[in-house]
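Input chain follows. Return structure tokens only.
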Amino acid sequence: MGQSAVSTSRAAFPAARDIVELLKPITWFPPMWAFMCGVVSSGAAFGGRWPFLIAGIALTGPLVCGTSQAVNDWFDRHVDAINQPERPIPSERIGGTWGLRIAIAGTLLSILVAAFVGFWVLAATALGLACAWAYSAPPFRFKASGWIGPAVVALTYEGLTWFTGAAVMAGALPRSEILLTLLLYSIGAHGIMTLNDFKAVEGDTATGLRSLPVTLGVARAARLACAVMALAQVGVIALLLVLGLGTSAIAVTISLVAQLALMRTLLLDPARNAPWYAARGVTLYVLGMLAAAFGLGGYIG
């Protein structure tokens, strides 16, 4: 009786710490970093844009990204029961339908905040939220595909958040060279998302998720991920050179060369070394993003 009462209480009133854990604050950093790159690449002065800037940070971090984590955990609760049984939903620290309720509330709040900021931010937010739901929820469940799933996450985490940062500052559609740069970095991020799938091969195999490490094997998936990350950055370097932004092109080149050196170690044992590479190679990748953003911010076409 006592255990049943505790379970019911948790289902009705999830603890604040469990809600925060559900929203995975550690995952907010990549989109917030891309948002910062968008802000820098716009070249616009902060001026009276501070309220919109703060709203944009909230959107890309706790609101849209946090909501996407809640959506994913709700629809992946059976997968997490294998891969991460300690998570709030499979462990029943967030019971009943509270996971779904939190995801819906986050979606509505995100739309409300984005509408305050402006049309282009609202459009990017709506697309990002649609991708978040379609990624995890049936009938689409894009994450079941090793090709489409990482592409959707890469687009939302890198591209749309960069777009949001530039749009927040410009108050308009970002310039074409910014759009091309964020597209290239989004393509490269497909490789990062593939590396992230290495940790869940067992659960993905058991539940029918066709991630690239499952369908191609870990070794081939790792080589593909490295190629995608590298070639996208080669495209960024070429674009920066065409624009006459030599200093930024050199900085991105140095970052890429260092990544290539680290990739050699990654490929020796991809399953074991993926977390090691994520802490080093992905850090270099995002530093290159910022270097490109600084160049674009000072560019006058």
